Amino acid sequence: VEPIGDQYILVLQKKIIKRDLKNFEKLFLASKENPKNLDILLELARTASQLNKTDIEISSLKKILSIKNSTKLKSLLAQAYIRKADGQVTSKAQKLINEALAEDPLDPGANFLNGLAQSQIGNEMLAFEIWTELYKRTSENDIWKKDLENNIRSAAKNLGISQKTLENNLKDNVLANNGL
């Protein structure tokens, strides 16, 4: 099998971006015509996120939250605030994370971000504990699994935890069995 060339990948990426931009424009107009349509607003937020149009993503998620309260939406909005701040957990994001965790202590998005917040303020052990507990509830199909694995590895390294100790400290060697 011949490897896919870089040129082909670039062409494909440009086509995807062009498609997403066209979809974004349609969704943006549709959201103006139907400002309370949750499906349109959610799809607009998702598409805006893919195109790195964070301000539109944030405004769409805020509109949705004003119509329907949900821990998942709070986690998504917190993620958008964090992306806008180049990965830093802001006070707005922290407030949403805290609200989401108060409503649903097992919310995966809020737990992931809470671990990030703890790591950023130097509470690496708590971040490690949050992330390893979250990992135990993570399925193979969760799109953020690799980011979670990287964060756990980084926290373990910062704490001086060896790979062997990492494996032994986790019930049923969950991380070791999943290739961490």
Describe this structure in words.
The chain has 180 residues and is mainly alpha-helical. 74% of the residues lie in helices and 0% in strands. The chain is globular.
Task: Chart the SSEs and their pairings.
Elements: H1 6-33, H2 38-50, H3 54-67, H4 71-84, H5 91-103, H6 108-120, H7 124-136, H8 145-159, H9 163-169, H10 174-177
Helix pairs in contact: 1-2, 2-3, 3-4, 4-5, 5-6, 6-7, 7-8
Helical percentage: over 70%
Topology as H/E string? HHHHHHHHHH
Radius of gyration: 19 Å
Structural class: mainly alpha
Judging from the principal axes of the Cα atoms, what is the shape? globular
Mean pLDDT: 89
Unreliable parts: none
State the oligomer.
single chain
Number of helices: 10
- Percentage of residues in DSSP E strands: under 5%
- Determine the N-to-C terminus distance: 29 Å
Number of beta-strand segments: 0
Q: Outline the biggest β-sheet.
A: none
List keywords for this structure.
180 residues; mainly alpha; 10 helices; 74% helix
Give the structure's gist in a few sentences.
The protein has helices spanning 6-33, 38-50, 54-67, 71-84, 91-103, 108-120, 124-136, 145-159, 163-169, 174-177.
